[in-house]
Design a protein that fits this description.
This protein has 81 residues and is mostly beta strands. Helix content is 15%, strand content 47%.
Length: 81
């Protein structure tokens, strides 16, 4: 596993590369868990968090390596009531 983080201005970028067995399940362009009994909510949670903080995510794979990149703004966000 490789983890890279960089903070530039008011943005935080995190990139993780992780080996896996090469089996992929995709539905509508979204990665699904290949683990029995798992719903695969981890990537969805990262997407939701990045959007909350005005960023984005990108998930890709090649061969037996999975790549996840997440960006998030570091400015304070205020929730509206």
């Amino acid at each position: 596993m490789r983890l890279n983080m960089i903070c530039s201005g008011k943005m935080l970028a995190i990139a993780v590369d992780n080996g896996f067995d090469g089996n992929v399940r995709l539905e509508g362009g979204r990665y699904l868990s290949t683990k029995p009994g798992h719903l695969g909510m981890g990537l969805k949670s990262l997407d939701d968090i990045s959007k909350k903080y005005h960023g984005g995510v990108e998930f890709t794979h090649d061969g037996t390596e999975f790549h996840a990149s997440v960006m998030a703004g570091l400015e304070e966000t205020r929730e509206r009531s």
